[in-house]
Structures are given as C-alpha cells and as structure tokens.
Amino acid sequence: QVQLVESGGGLVQAGGSLRLSCVASGRTFSSLTMGWFRQAPGKERKSVAAFRWDGIRTLYADSVGRFTISRDNAKNTVYLQMNSLKPEDTAVYYCAAKTRYSGEYDFWGQGTQVTVSS
C-alpha cells in the first residue's frame, strides 16, 4: 500500500503562486509514477501534471507555461509549483500514485484546497 499526504494549499490572489507538496510512504518512492489532479465543485476530476517513474514529465493543457512538477526521491516527495494562478484554478488538488505496471492511478491522497480570488 501507499499512503499520500498533500499540503501547501490555501487562499491566494490571482497572479500569485503556491507550491503543493505530497509525501508518500509505504512503498519505494522511486518506483512510482506520481500525478497531480484537481476537482472543482460539481466538475469532473482532471489531470494537472504527472512525473513518471522513469523521469518522463507531462503537463496538461492549462498547466503548460504556468505549472511545474518535480520530485525529490530522497524525501519521498513530489511537488507542484503553480505560478500566475487564475480563479479558474480554484479546486481541491489531489496527489496520486501508481506503479509502472498500472494503467490507472491506484492510490490517492485526501486533497488540499486551493482558492484563487480575483
């Protein structure tokens, strides 16, 4: 099993920045693909970014140019640096993990709220 704990959310003005952190335990961190997702009230959960076990990084549509995903395997932590935040970014942000053999994300954190005011 993998346990994930997110932190770093909060209230920020439009144009500001936040850095989210996700600490993993219960499994060798370097063997996992890590992802960030977000879900606004009444909306579907959407992919934000991913950092695959072999180092391949992916940013999804609205993240390009504003967000950066990184990881520190020594600290079992993945980060999401968010710059130039917009009100549309307001959502609960979730950290997720899967093994190299999984087609779906298997493990999820409880989420951290990000609210961007205009």
In words, what does this structure look like?
By secondary structure, this protein is mostly beta strands. It contains no helices and eleven strands. It has strands at about 5, 10-15, 20-25, 30-40, 45-50, 55-60, 65-70, 75-80, 90-100, 105-110, 110-115. The strands form two sheets. Strands 2, 4, 5, 6, 9, 10 and 11 form a seven-stranded mixed β-sheet that branches. Strands 1-3-8-7 form a four-stranded antiparallel β-sheet, with no helix packed on it. The radius of gyration is 13 Å and the shape is globular. The model has no long low-confidence stretch (mean pLDDT about 95).
How many angstroms does the end-to-end distance come to?
A: 40 Å
Number of helices: 0
Q: What structural category characterises the helix and strand content?
A: mainly beta
- Proportion of residues in β-strands: over 45%
Number of strands: 11
